[in-house]
Specification:
This protein is α+β, with helices and mostly antiparallel strands and 419 residues long. It is built from eleven helices and 17 strands. Strands 1-10-9-4-3-2-5 form a seven-stranded antiparallel beta sheet, with no helix packed on it. A seven-stranded antiparallel beta sheet has the order 11-17-16-15-14-13-12. A hairpin with a 2-residue loop joins strand 16 (326-336) and strand 17.
């Protein structure tokens, strides 16, 4: 990680003053303070990240009893397990004795988690099975020392977790896009590939970058030649109309073009961003491949390509780009003041076989390249906003509208937590 000059003369009062000043500059980017303050970072983790529904894994990754995956967030780690009865649970990977992590592996299969420090043993449901020699302590009861549970909800095979026990329910908001997302049959899909890009930049820069396509024409040549999202809506209205007119008939899915958007300040419950929209690919392209030609068997209910793709948001930090034959999930997770895990997950139909039904390199090529391009521009952005001389400029009213929604919600969240 590149060393940056962080804010050292910091306080709650300074944070509140920065928020107030920023609120008076709506339509202008965040001040460098918000990217450089450790106080801000800590406040973000406790009041925003750990109170939000975050995509953790896909059900197929823990298909069998004893399977587990680990999801690292900030300085923490969450274990997601499949018990013998088939149930899926999540809990913090922090031993209830003296706090060691009870599991190191990113994923695997086990019967129990044995803490490497003093050997306390936990079941797959997080309950404490045994605490060596602790019976000599008066009143010690294993029932009181389960791993701290994390809330969990599954939607279309996608597992979301939330560390806030009082978090608003996420299932009801997500049900609003059941038709559009359900079309891809993600419950029965499988992960063809996933990759974590560690970006040397604050998480907000990564998320802000994802939320606007103003940069696409400039930074993503391969993407821009096939995706119409880089243009203002008005300029591609005819292209979109043509896709929408044929979409239901071609795909066989009624409602595939339905638009739904309740994000950030307008979400149903804290951070419960839910968004679905369909965009047009330029003529001659049917999916997100380098040449625009089919990559894999059609997913879910799709009968044919329609020249469109689905754009989704699921919670405050995850999004999907879904083509008729594969889906790509993006997730942004802070791992330090200037470190972010940008994870990409490529999904294909559950029975698609690598090397026969699809070529993995071709499947991942476009979004791998695009992500590398994003890493380049985001890290350049990080260097600039960390400059002592950075003065934020104005957002584009259409292209950067979602960024502005995010910033409004972000500032309000930070303010409420700091007051
Ligand atoms: S810290 Fe886990 S057993 Fe002691
Ligand atoms: Fe980008």
């Amino acid at each position: 990680m590149k060393t940056i000059s962080t804010i050292v003369d910091d306080s709650r009062q300074r944070l509140l003053a920065q928020i107030t000043a920023q609120e008076g500059r709506r339509g202008v980017g965040l001040d460098g303070y918000f990217y450089r303050s450790h106080l801000v970072y800590q406040q973000e983790l406790s009041s925003l990240v750990f109170k939000s529904w975050l995509y953790a894994a896909h059900c197929s990754e823990i298909a069998k009893s004893g399977d587990f995956v680990q999801f690292e967030v900030g300085e923490d780690a969450i274990l997601i397990t499949r018990s013998a009865d088939g149930s899926i649970r999540a809990f913090m990977n922090v031993c209830r004795h003296r706090g060691a992590r009870v599991c190191d592996a990113a994923m695997g299969n086990t019967k129990t988690f044995v803490c490497p420090y003093h050997g306390w043993v936990y079941n797959l449901d997080g309950s404490l099975r045994a605490a060596r020699e602790m019976e000599v302590r008066d009143g010690f009861d294993t029932v009181e020392y389960s791993l701290r549970p994390v809330r969990l909800q599954v939607f279309e095979g996608l597992i979301f977790v939330n560390c806030d026990p009082d978090a608003d329910d996420f299932a009801a908001p997500l049900s609003n896009i059941k038709i559009q997302l359900g079309a891809y049959g993600l419950s029965d899909a499988r992960v063809a590939h996933k990759h974590t890009y560690r970006i040397d930049a604050n998480w907000k820069l990564c998320l802000e970058n994802y939320q606007e396509c103003y940069h696409c024409t400039n930074a993503h040549r391969a993407y821009a030649k096939m995706h119409s999202m880089r243009e203002p809506d008005e300029r591609v209205a005819d292209l979109k109309k043509a896709v929408f007119e044929r979409a239901e008939e071609r795909t066989g899915i009624k409602g595939i073009t339905n638009y739904y958007r309740r994000v950030y300040g307008n979400a149903e419950g804290f951070g419960n961003c839910v968004y679905a929209s369909r965009y047009a690919l330029y003529d001659g392209y049917v999916t997100g491949s380098e040449d625009g030609l089919p990559l894999a068997p059609l997913m879910g209910q799709f009968k044919d390509y329609d020249g469109g793709y689905g754009d989704f948001q699921l919670g405050p930090m995850a999004a999907m780009l879904n083509y008729p034959d594969h889906c790509v999930l993006y997730r942004f997770i802070p791992r330090g003041l200037t470190a972010t895990d940008m994870e990409l997950v490529w999904f294909v139909k559950g029975d698609a076989v690598e090397g026969i039904d699809y070529d993995l390199e071709k499947l991942t090529s476009l979004w791998h390249k695009t992500s590398m391009e994003d890493e380049y521009i985001i890290t350049r952005n990080s260097e600039g906003v960390n400059s002592q001389f950075f003065e934020p400029g104005p957002y584009h009213p259409e292209f950067e509208e979602t960024v502005m929604c995010f910033i409004d919600w972000y500032l309000n969240t930070l303010k409420q937590a700091t007051l």
